[in-house]
Amino acid sequence: MPRCRWIAAACLASLAGLPSPAHSLQAYAPGEVATAGTIRGTLTFRGEVPAAERVEVTTDPEVCGVEPRFTSDLLVADGNDGVQNVVIWLSDIQEGKGWETPAEPRTLNQKGCTFTPHVLVVPAGEQFFAVNSDGVLHNIHTRSGENRPVNKAQPGFLKRLPLKFRYPEIVRVECDAHDWMMAWIVVAAHPYYTITESDGSFRLENVPPGTYTMQVWHERLGTLSREVTVSADADVSVNVEYPAGQ
Amino acid sequence: MRIWHPLLGALAAIACLASPAETFGQESPWRDGTLDSSMIESGKRLYLRKCAFCHGSGGRGDGSVARYVFPKPRDLSMGLYKIHSTPTGGLPTDQDLFRTLSRGLPGTTMPSWSNLSTMQRWQLVAYIKTFSDRFENEMDLEFQPITIGTPKPPYPESVASGQRLFLEAQCWTCHGMKGKGDGPSSHTLVDDWDYPIIPADLTSSRNWRGGYRPEDAYRSIAVGIGGTPMPSFDDALTEDQLWDIVNYLLWNIGS
Fold first, then answer.
1. What ipTM describes this predicted complex?
2. Is A55 part of the contact surface with chain B (CB cutoff 8 Å)?
3. Per-residue pLDDT tens for B193-249?
4. In this complex, do A153 and B173 lie within 8 Å of one another by their Cβ atoms?
5. Which CATH code is given to the segment(s) A5-242?
6. Domains of chain B, first to last
7. Which residues sit opposite A100 in a β-bridge?
């Protein structure tokens, strides 16, 4: 996809709206959560959804496909206008659950010349892997604010490439060899982060009672925030709508 | 594949050694940490006279002639420099900056400033570092320069191995099968500021941004070219393999 400057500007503007990572880092202490509630809700978009962009495949057609691709950075569900791939987190939580240890290490897969998942949450300072399932050259080229940028080649024979980011922020990842490939790595200070499903729904579970600032970020639509109060053993519903025109 | 001729190898080796005597390894005048403000002030005066019309008075790459220049003059405010001997994403060392100023960037409009005195070049280094606070904030030991060992002799086996690796690691995706900078992805590339950029035609040593000594080529492949699509191959290739590719590319010059 031609990376027009306005997209970059929008992304940077979105990143600029993020809370200072230094604050998130110093605040959080994991521990036992005696009583807790759940925040659930749906992210919706009201407005005209821009048409997907047509991209010609010129590189590695035997793996990436020969047909033109139609890519979109705004995925809105047909039925309920739910927005997929929205990042939601509690920016001012100071104590709560620890990270669950996943059965397999967290990975950013490059398969069919597409990053999967499109948005990946990783704990700050923890190693994860870029996986090359394609057997052709990809590269992990990041743009970030707090973390050092990296641009690492991952030829077809290098199946797993270890990566680590130290500071919480949202890092943009691109592959220069295939210019439509893009993903986001959410470097998280604590486990209270989630990504919306294809219908825009989300759940943040095991949240200690209290009042929090819930941050909402989407690569195209930008950042919003809501105040949320969680009670013990209760669900609180928070539905957020992105205004049209953003 | 071309037939190896020992004479060509010898010529390539002589070409590599024939670069002008360099004093780039010298230490900066502020090695003991006493970077006095007069040094920066002198650097600023020089910068405004010599550099600002391309790089802009604030170092943002937006000088008065920037629009006529390709590739674009570098925005120096992010601490992202093409030539750095540190791993990918790392800051250049003082010596890296001094060397780039002294030698210029082949294949671009950045000239050699070796007509300035050594002290004047160090003054410029001192000043351009003030454009990015990364130089203040990232003074940790994590990002030391990589170790570049002794170049591997350019024997035919090494050159052949390098050619094989050039194909397997798909350097040709950008640089083209013959290294002429015309690979299938070459026309979709942009730099970190989203300006179009083209891969170097490696068949001409005049285009090798970081220099064409074997050590320079090794560094460019190992750590990449900062702020451009050229990635670091440090994780993907062994030291031996990197030297093989260097030998192949030097052999391939002029093809």
1. 0.87
2. no
3. 999 999 999 999 888 999 889 999 999 999 999 999 999 999 999 999 999 999 999
4. no
5. 2.60.40.420
6. 36-137 (1.10.760.10), 149-252 (1.10.760.10)
7. none
